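Standup notes
- DV: blocked on the single-chain target, sequence here:
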Amino acid sequence: MKELVCLHAGTSGPSTWDRFVPTFEELGYRVHCPTLLGHGSAPRRRPYRLDDFRDQVLREFDGPITLVGNSLGAFVASAVAAAEPDRVERLVLEELPVPPRDPHDSGPTHLPMPAAALLLAGWLTRRRSDPVLLRDVIADLRRPNPSWWAGLRTVQAPTLLLAGGPRSHLDQTRFDLVAKTMPTATVATIEAGHRIHSTAPDRWLDVVRTFLAFKGA
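- DV (later): unblocked, structure below
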């Protein structure tokens, strides 16, 4: 069987993928839904850096893997592929937050959220995740990340970038920049906002099922 790793968004959790696991298993995948650092009962490691989440996945899973991720999970999936492209067979990046290429480039969102608002949002979701996690992650995503961009050029795995359309807070124009950088990436839009798999699960699954299907499953 092929290994499929589903990575949840920040302040979310692995149960967000529960409804899709039976379909993925029917396609011939062994499905893993890890809890990312700082969420649920997973270790807390302040400050939270994007590389820490990437390294967590690299430590927990050996051999070839297919990665599906939403938001923070999508970035972590892309970072795993950029770091070790030979290990990744396919990528589904749902509403990927795209960091700046250099100090003159724009960030992942249309408008920046003040640090106080991020701490408030973290406090409101404190039962699901460390209250400072959201602030740390977004601060890291706003920093120029040229090494990530360089790593994307080495990723040969077929990649599906899922965009949520105008209801999302992310800058949708940045997905095309990623697709132009990655040799085998395509963009598909499902106008359902930032968490497409939660707000439009049937449409999400139709697209993802087709992309993940492989002969011999």
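- Follow-up: The radius of gyration is 16 Å.
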